[in-house]
Amino acid sequence: MMTLSPIFLMAQSESTGIFKAASDVGPVLHPGKTNFDVAAQSYRLSGSGANIWFAKDEFHYAYSQISGNCLLQARGKLVGQGVDPHRKFGWMMRAGLDSTAAMVSATVHGDGLTAIQYRKHSGMNIEEVKSPVRMPDIIQLERRGRSFFLSVAHFGEPFWTVEVPDFDFPETLYAGLFICSHNKDVTETAEFDNVRIVVPAKPDFQPYRDYIGSHIEILDIESGHREIVYSAVNSLQAPNWTPDNKALIYNSEGLIYRLDLAARTPVVVNTDFVKQNNNDHVLSFDGKMLGLSSSSGDAKYGSLIYTVPVGGGTPVQVTPVGPSYLHGWSPNGKWLTFTGLRNDNYDIYKVRSKGGREIRLTDTPGLDDGSEFSPDGKYIYFNSTRSGKMQLWRMKANGKEQTQLTDDEYNNWFPHVSPDGEWIVFLSYPPDVKPDDHPFYKQVLLRKMPAEGGKPAVIAYFYGGQGSINTPSWSPDGKRVAFVSNSN
Fold it and tell me: In this structure, which topology does domain 213-487 adopt according to CATH?
């Protein structure tokens, strides 16, 4: 059995995981069951029940009680061919556990029909809004004030979303996963992974002053399976994967930590007087040195760049002026790339890793950021607002041949190149976020595309943003990436 952080362990049980209980709702003929696989962090629900429809429901339910706004996220599927085409599974929130309670559900049927189905008052007949996406495996139900939102997708594609407003529900609701066989005489089964109950930041939170909790997650690129390896009630940011495959480096509250992946225990990395580190820290390709961005220097310059041995020591200042935000290290260890505010404009620069004259690589109006070398040292990938939205670009290591790689409705940040140089993984904000802003605590996507450009595919749907994946975080074998998701 793998080791998880104490906070994550306290929030789960061996039988029902993050849910407080599991039981049948309504007079089902065959008792249902919830099984939680601790190692895989996955769920298997089996249940009976005549239906979830009209004025009463019968089904099996794994649930907790949640107050206020929340996001319920999972990837799920039905098991086997099934008996009735209207067997159904998904997320549900209810005012009570009686069969006629007011409820709302994100429901996927065995024949592919997908809908948000709801009973606004106890004893009323259920209503629904159908989705054009049939048989999705990515299922999300969100409560936001008096509205509920259904978001569904086939893994790899963006969400389709619909809002249903004007629910007069209690502040505290039951929330969880369900399975219904739609045939009282049989039992059906559904499986779920990447299950998250997210309590978002309060609407009036103040960025860089108010923080919520964090999960450090590891994502398997091929399967899309996510594993929480460490959790905390405060802000954890920007994990870097060490080349020896033994640890993740991250920042929290100004300090740098090393998380041992075998023991799942973090220890502080000694950065001496540099104790206001932000999430722009980068490991050298050989893993021997750590580059830091920190406001520990002269206050008039803001963030400055330092280097320190990966095991800790006394940092050496690299940039004489700021603000300077580190993002990349050349494969030969001789150069650092960073975003610098000079003459009222943010551009990308490079500088010798031991210090020296800055070399300006971009000079267009607007924000250029997120620079990172390809493993062969030939290219620097970055993101820029020069074409309107924040999009991904690539240039030669000398700043020549600047070429746009993405052009869509999202705001795309922080291209991270795979160890073999074939792929990039990046963070995508929704269109309503300002192009030059990368805020905390939004519903965001992690996407992957060929390093030469092409159609991006979604590899993770999560709640996060600033600090989630600002810096390189591929595993040495190129099969996984680490990132941070958030919940209050």
Answer: Neuraminidase (2.120.10)
